[in-house]
Amino acid sequence: MSLMITDECINCDVCEPECPNDAISQGEEIYQIDPEKCTECVGHYDEPQCQQVCPVDCIPHDPSKQESQEELHAKYVRMHGSK
Known about the structure:
Blueprint: E1 24-26, E2 31-33, H1 49-53, H2 69-80
Antiparallel strand pairs: 1-2
């Protein structure tokens, strides 16, 4: 699954620089995650880094963007080449 940022976001700016895929950007009111770029850090880290640093725990899985680990890894390979 891709991740999403809920409206509980406090715009603290800590998640954006942690994303190795540049999937997080400032939206109109809160940060947002581009589901086409989010691999939940598969290929980079064992756990999503944005979730690890978020002080308000507002980055859950997006139930409308369900992806398997294999699909997330395939997305990583498309963006960064094989590893």
